[in-house]
Write a structure and sequence with these properties.
Rossmann fold, 6-stranded parallel sheet, 2 domains, single chain, alpha/beta, 43% helix, 389 residues
Length: 389
């Protein structure tokens, strides 16, 4: 197929999984010779945490005062204005990576300003506010094609929502994430007061979906036998409000006698610059991802590429691509199970870094993901051509 003009839309400049997916996909599609533009809402002075090798259009957004509904509405409006101003109808493919951008495209489609759009569902959330739930629903119901990053979500879209979705998985950059140490490793350990460990790393901040409270309970058990152990909770830039859950975690840490801060038993980094992440993965002795719900769990592959053992929830999507040779399993609803898995990973993980892990990583490249996306784009273009002639 000739060069396509592709617009990829992502909801935030922050390093969330869906945003990483968008930027890596943009890079891989550009490498295939396509003309890619990334659209992203940004307040004055904000830029993407990592710049892709393609055109980026920042949709100016005024930081909304008030609740999540106002914030989402402001970002939908920002997308709509930017797309209209940059000739959205001229793109061969308009591809939303989230509900916010999906709603902007749904509105333009309803107005006849674009011919259709694609949507990737990374995961779905439950919101108490009916308007947020309606926006989430519209973003996939009005899409002409729906992709998911794991079979778990493809099955749910098909069974629960009657959406004919199909799976196009993530990739991992094994050049960026590797076990090769560099000068950043010592700098990261010094910056966050990582004093020997062992170091348990969790990425994604403090969130109920990430099951951070259960991990804290499990870490307290681990630390009773390994008193020098440290838990590092990295990242956490999010558009959603997790303050109440964070306060519960801080209170529970105090009750468990766990101090928080650099050089302390629990290190909460907050949002981090992109350059430190590979060194942070290498500095950890184990990555814990005991989420209650995930779209794919990209950081698992990044940790394994860095030579770091992983403990993951024994639920899909992890069960779809991991096995006993590539991870340690834990019941995310049982802190003792999480603790036992962490100890197993720290002592003798059983993870086969010589054969099984390289074979796993070889299955998930961004180049392969881009080629799968191109298959989907061809189907979308062919379907659109039939409808417009």
């Amino acid at each position: 197929m000739s060069t396509l003009r592709i617009a990829l839309l992502t909801h935030s400049v922050n390093p969330r999984g869906g945003v990483v997916h968008t930027l890596e996909l943009a890079s891989a599609l550009t490498a295939l010779g396509h003309d890619v533009t990334v659209f992203v809402p940004a307040a004055r002075g904000e830029t993407l945490f990592r710049l892709p090798p393609c055109r980026v259009v920042y949709a100016p957004v005024v930081l909304a005062q008030g609740d999540t509904v106002a914030m989402v509405e402001a970002r939908i409006d920002a997308f709509r204005r930017a797309l209209t101003g940059h000739g959205a109808a001229a793109f061969d493919v308009l591809h939303a990576q989230d509900s916010i951008s999906g709603n902007a495209l749904a509105e333009l489609k309803a107005q006849g300003l674009v011919h259709g759009f694609m949507r990737t569902v990374h995961h779905l959330d439950h919101f108490d506010d009916p308007r947020l739930m309606a926006w989430q629903r519209r973003a996939y119901q009005d899409a002409d094609e729906v992709l998911c990053v794991s079979d778990r979500w493809t099955r749910e879209m098909q069974a629960e929502y009657r959406i004919d979705a199909f799976t196009v998985p993530n990739g991992v950059d094994v050049q960026r994430f590797s076990s090769r140490t560099d000068r950043h490793d010592a700098q990261v350990r010094q910056r966050f007061g990582l004093d020997g460990g062992p170091i348990v790393l969790a990425v994604g901040g403090i969130e109920a979906r990430k099951n951070t409270l259960a991990l804290l309970e499990a870490f307290a058990v681990v630390r009773s036998g390994l008193p020098q152990a440290q838990l590092v909770i990295a990242g956490g830039a999010s558009l959603l409000d997790h303050d109440a859950y964070s306060r519960r975690l801080l209170q529970r840490a105090s009750e468990l006698g766990l101090s928080i801060g650099p050089h302390e038993s629990v290190v909460v980094t907050g949002p981090l610059e992109d350059a430190v992440m590979p060194a942070l993965f290498r500095s950890a002795d184990v990555l814990s991802m005991v989420s209650l719900r995930e779209g794919f769990g990209l950081v698992v592959l990044e940790a394994l590429a860095s030579g770091t053992p992983v403990v993951v929830s024994s639920i899909a999507p992890f069960t779809e691509y991991l096995d006993d040779a590539t991870c340690c399993w834990a019941d995310p609803l049982d802190a003792d199970s999480i603790a036992a898995a962490l100890v197993r990973a720290l002592n003798e993980s059983g993870i086969d870094f010589e054969h099984a892990v390289p074979a796993l990583l070889a299955r998930f490249s961004w180049a392969a993901s881009a080629r799968r996306h191109m298959d989907a784009y061809r189907r979308f273009a062919a379907k659109r051509a039939l409808l417009t002639h």
